Amino acid sequence: MRALFNIQNWFLENVGNIDLETMKNWFLFNPKQPLLFNSALFLGLFLIFYVIYILSRKTHYFRITYVVLFSLFFYYKCSGIYFGLLIFSSVVDYVLSRLIYEEAKQGYRKFYMILSLLINLGMLAYFKYTNFFIDNYNSLFDGTMKFEDIILPVGISFYTFQTLSYTIDVYRRELEPTKSFMDFLFFVSFFPQLVAGPIVRASDFIPQIYEKLKLTKEDFNRALFLIIGGLIKKAVISDYISTNFVDRVFDAPNSYTAFENLMASYGYAIQIYCDFSGYSDIAIGLALLMGFWLPDNFRTPYQSGSITEFWRRWHISLSTWLRDYLYISMGGNRKGKIRTYFNLFMTMLLGGLWHGASWKFVVWGVLHGLALVVEKFFGQFIKLPKNMFVRTIQVILTFHFVVFCWLFFRAKDFTTAFQIADNITKLTFNLEQWQTIILGYKNVFLLIAIGVVWHFVPVKTLAGMQKTFSTLPLVAKAVLLGLIYWVVYATASADTQPFIYFQF
């Protein structure tokens, strides 16, 4: 009876009592309620969008325009008036890329390329780093500069890198420009990956625009499987352990025991993985429903036996972007060992700064950069035996280094990060205390355990689960998807829980 009552409440809150004011709010930007993949509003809008999309599958220009308009609306609902910034950035890179492609003189080509870099990185620097620079200037020189009232547009770091990849590829003559501006805007604004990735390469995505739309039964089933799994990761596991445990400990670490500080550190590692990989799964699934392939963004990163391996498995679209457009552009490993170490370090430092305008992100990037350098250096001399025992030790050590680095990523400041680290060093075995804490947070620890187990589920097992899911009738799949959305509603907190990477 309680379940039916909850369903009724969900229906009334999200569907019922529809009046003119309610309908108007569906289409107006509300900064407190951005349009999220895990919201009932998005589900409703996407279902309507998708029906028309499928019906228009044979009309290329209408379909492209239709998706662009929906994507811009989606971005407007996420970021308000800043959707105009997305259009401006797209116009700039489209025009400059055409000029680069058609220009024969290398000097002019380089000028247009530099101009694109200055405009794109200049906008990113203004919106993301202006107040960071002001704060550091005031601290260093006892300045009195006032902070600017600047709101960071959602997803600007992602679509800036995306448009830059397009311009650079055209400059390198690795890609021809799109046939029209609308095609280019489709690539930039494609809503499944617009605000939090994966960062799509123009060379991978744009050719798909001109292919005939085809959606196989296998693709459809995989898409739904990814979406359902992503929703569970994000809205059930990540959001619950965040609001009910992790956030509380990180807000006041000294108010909690050493064991709780330790478990909150582990909890955040699971939280950020489930949050971000969950978003990526949903994005990839939505794109696949529309007939587009997006690259995998995660590949069980906590199974890594080194930091080098970790960055081949974590946020793959970013790490490969940094490798191809930053690390290699700086010389990669072509200019000697010392320069290789420097390039590795600087790539990760800048990668850390990309995540946020704060020294704590810089430190996070520096720690990972130093780890990569150390691994690169000692890898020349030390060759460890390849067996299960050694691999297990490597995975454990790598995981705990990553967890330690996450402290600086998550904590509000350095003081909080060091407080948590210091509290953990005071850990002593107290079975009675630990049992009390575990029982008090049994749901949280259960979900953390599920997140860990999910992370280590063999690929073959996941494939078997997907195969079983594929055999279900379409009605059963629809009911299951609806049930997941209801669970999301039933377990949601009062405040909206946006995806963590929305802030980047």
Task: Report the total helices.
Answer: 21
Shape estimate: globular
Helical content stands at over 70%
The largest sheet, given as strand count, sense and whether it forms a barrel, is: none
Give Rg in angstroms: 24 Å
What would you note in describing this structure?
The chain has helices at residues 2-14, 20-27, 40-55, 60-79, 83-102, 106-141, 156-171, 181-189, 202-209, 217-251, 258-289, 307-313, 316-327, 337-355, 359-378, 388-410, 414-425, 431-440, 442-455, 459-470, 474-491. α5 runs antiparallel to α6. The chain folds into 2 domains: 56-209, no CATH class; 217-503, no CATH class. By secondary structure, the protein is mainly alpha-helical. The chain has 21 helices and no strands. The chain starts with a helix and ends in a 13-residue tail after the last helix.
Summarize, please.
This protein is mostly helical and 504 residues long. The protein is built from 21 helices and no strands.
Write the layout of secondary structure elements.
Elements (H helix, E strand, L loop, with lengths): L1 H13 L5 H8 L12 H16 L4 H20 L3 H20 L3 H36 L14 H16 L9 H9 L12 H8 L7 H35 L6 H32 L17 H7 L2 H12 L9 H19 L3 H20 L9 H23 L3 H12 L5 H10 L1 H14 L3 H12 L3 H18 L13
Helix pairs in contact: 4-8, 5-6, 5-7, 5-8, 6-7, 8-9, 10-11, 10-19, 10-21, 11-16, 11-17, 11-19, 13-14, 14-15, 15-16, 16-17
